[in-house]
Design goal:
alpha/beta; three-stranded antiparallel beta sheet
Length: 360
């Protein structure tokens, strides 16, 4: 919806130069081009992955509100991710979308500590305000979820993560997503300096074990995530907190820790995630080739050719099921996957993907 983001969070993988948040402008030319963009989409419209749809400029521009009117008219499912509270302004449209099972509003939170958020994301509403906004939307029947992103290793204790997830449950969360902190050249030294200012950082040793001073970032186009051991430790802590609160957990970094396959609400229209694919392969209880996967599972979702080619390539090179319990080996010339019964964490480098579905 917008180019640039006034929230300008210190850890954002999509940050531009140091004045990134000062030069925000609408991305689309107007309602006509927006209508055309939405009409060309299939599946779920995913808004908020790169810039926040409810940053301050939206109050005057109303581009996100116009998009909601359009997806309502087209009966198009939409996922809204925000760190803001302006989303409440659009509750009238969100209620109508919710009545048709066409919307989910996901609030992003990294901690309950307002002093920490003041350092790392000082232009966003405080955590308790986001939780209160989520509760009010949930009370009106609008599906609400939360995104712990980035999950910063060592920032909160296990008890702190439990408090965070319990607060999300009280706010009406249907499930929780989690993604471990990624590092990219440019903003990384600045972020490290800000993290040094966080007074309530629970375990700095754990963080430094995952992100040492010699972390290699030079020339990397994607995001580098910390060491496998640290990623596993903090991801398991968040999964345990979700289990204790009775909330389904979706791990974006370690798919094997995901506790559920999301299939209701807007997820009736989704393409399978890595976890969903791994879950199907695992349930076959035998080695599965790509042909068997395509014929028995994937083809039914009607992926376009570009997506099919991407999945096929990742299948062949052995990286598709990284961070799950599946392992691949070449049998009769074909990459064949089977469940090992043991979760293993592999390469900690991942490409950042703009999941904007054609509307930024």
């Amino acid at each position: 919806m917008y180019q640039g983001c006034q929230f300008s969070c210190a850890y954002c993988l999509y940050r531009g130069p140091s004045d990134y948040g000062a030069h925000v402008r609408p991305m689309t030319a107007g309602p006509v081009s927006l209508d055309r963009a939405v009409s060309q989409l299939d599946g779920i419209v995913d808004i908020g992955a790169t810039t926040d749809p409810y940053q301050a400029i939206e109050e005057q521009q109303e581009r996100t509100r116009e998009l909601l009117r359009q997806v309502l008219a087209d009966e198009q499912p939409i996922f809204l991710l925000t760190r803001g509270t302006l989303v409440e302004r659009d509750a009238d449209l969100l209620v109508r979308l919710a009545e048709r099972g066409l919307v989910e509003v996901c609030f992003s939170l990294i901690t309950l500590d307002p002093y920490t958020t003041d350092v790392l994301e000082g232009r966003t509403p405080p955590p308790l305000e986001r939780l209160a906004a989520a509760r009010r939307l949930a009370d009106r029947g609008i599906p609400v979820s939360f995104h712990v992103a980035p999950l910063i290793p060592g920032l909160d204790s296990e008890a702190g993560l439990r408090d965070l997830v319990e607060a999300m449950a009280r706010a009406g969360a249907q499930h929780v997503f989690g993604a471990v902190l990624g590092a990219r050249p440019g903003f990384w030294p600045t972020l490290l300096g800000l993290l040094d200012r966080v007074a309530h950082f629970h375990d700095r040793a754990l963080f430094r074990a995952g992100y040492p001073d010699d972390l290699e970032l030079r020339g990397q186009d994607g995001a580098v995530i910390g060491s496998a051991e640290v990623v596993m430790t903090c991801s398991k802590q968040l999964r345990a907190a979700c289990d204790a609160a009775g909330l389904p957990f979706v791990s974006e970094t370690v798919p094997g820790l995901t506790s559920t396959v999301l299939s209701s609400g807007i997820y009736r229209w989704k393409m399978p995630t890595v976890h969903d694919m791994a879950d199907w392969v695992s349930n076959q209880r035998r080695g599965i080739t790509h042909h068997a996967f395509e014929e028995g599972f994937y083809r039914a979702f009607a992926p376009d050719e570009a997506l099919r080619a991407l999945v096929a390539g990742l299948w062949r090179d052995g990286t598709l099921f990284a961070n799950t319990s599946l392992a691949g080996q070449i049998i009769d010339g074909q990459m064949t996957y089977a469940d090992t019964g043991r979760l293993h964490v592999e390469a900690m480098r991942t490409l950042t993907v703009r999941r904007n579905g054609g509307v930024a």
